[in-house]
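forwarding from the other thread:

> can someone predict this with calcium ion?

sure thing
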Amino acid sequence: MGDDHLWWQREIIYQIYPRSFMDRNGDGIGDLPGLIDRLDHLVWLGVGAVWLSPIYPSPMADFGYDVADFTGIHPIFGTLGDFDRLIEETHARGLKLILDLVPNHSSDQHPWFIESRSSRSNARRDWYIWRDPARNGGPPNNWLSVFGGSGWQWDEATGQYYYHAFLKEQPDLNWRNPKVRDAMHDAMRFWLDRGVDGFRVDVIWHLIKDDRWRDNPLNPGFAPGMSPYNRLLPVYTADRPEVLDVVAGLRRVVDAYDERVLIGEIYLPIERLVAYYGEDLEGAHLPFNFQLILSAWDAQDIAALIREYEAALPPGGWPNWVLGNHDNHRIASRVGPAQARVAAMLLLTLRGTPTMYYGDELGMPDVPIPPELVQDPYEKNVPGIGVGRDPARTPMPWNAARNGGFTTGKPWLPLGDDVAQINVESERHDPTSILSLNRALIALRQSDPALTCGGYAQVEPHGPVLTYLREHGGRRLLIALNLTSGPATVRLPAGTGKVLLSTHLDRGGSAEGDALELRADEGVIVELTGT
Ligand code: NOJ
Ligand code: CA
């Protein structure tokens, strides 16, 4: 194994949406004691790090992404004591713990904002982004909120607008103010001192806005059915050149501790995404790569984006891949249950750190949410076009019991009607389940240096089959993924090979001649044995 690789390069990151993982006290909402009870699932699965979506005190306007105290725990999740126990229990199992850091905005109930809005002369006024109305009245410029409507909210009491890239309950902090930087750095140290292993930084590319307040241009690609936010290109509100300096500041905080990780949430095209590694790799260790979420499910398209990404990485920059998260439709719903198995093989055989989303290991699909049960504020603000994120945030089904064993109470979001089949316990007992597949893939990846840290080489796509090589110390693995539901044939570049694992879990160990027949929706990992 490449011993010179750090844990965040070797391990698999597993994202937990804490409201939906395990409820211990029966209030229908997941909590830290419940999560601790279930840590052994992660050990059994073989992942190495947990990233927790926010658990800070919050009015929950955006389910924790509206933080009212950057150094506390929301009572709904538990206490600081529970959190310390969580760190202890994760570390005792050899797992790492990554927290969500939400530095772009706070809750409007955060004491900082309450002070800031109290008067124009308050010492914290410029901790947020306040502007006078435009000359002829109305918002200062055309900036939009991602969640619909203007990004500017009028404050009657002080006669100015404040800017919010998300909900009006999430005012943006002013990162041009050094006091804001210091305060957020202090909050990071609070958690690093307690032992957390790093941060996933929310909307890191949004942190700095244009200091000349220029209007965003129209988006020529805007089409009906798109979220209204896409009417404009966010040229002046996101990915500003100065943001890289802010990212480097966050990185310096993390670097004062040993082996902690800084991950950035970034939805940008590849050539801009890689800028967040920083010029001398002084930016994020892992700028999240969402290309697999954004791409069409097509062998040529995916081959092209892997090639582009690999080529764009700066020297020494470590790649990473994400297949799903709490803001997007689940992979099993995006590509269907059969291809979800192929997708798992793709995620776990690409070069770089994989991030998995809780429940995806079970092949859990989106759960349709009836209108009266909708929770997500984005869906409430922009209804009817499918932007709602609740379907991908439903409770984890642990067994076939009522509510999947997630809660003894009423779950905050409903579980799917497939819980009897799609749950941890049943799938653990089924050697052909997608859960068994994920576990086998993880075991192979973690024990095979060609997969953990080997090189990547593309093989020309064979029609519907995405093929690539992973190699390490003379050992060569061919990954061949049939992205369609018809059979396909692949020629083995080196003559002969041995199938190590198939997504169908039924042909491990079989030897192959120079042509490999793939069944519908089948992916294989083949050890090349010829010369
Ligand atoms: C990105 C988070 O992933 C999303 O869930 C949240 O609503 C926005 N940032 C605002 O914090
Ligand atoms: Ca609970």
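The first strand starts at residue 13 and ends at 16. thats all i got for now
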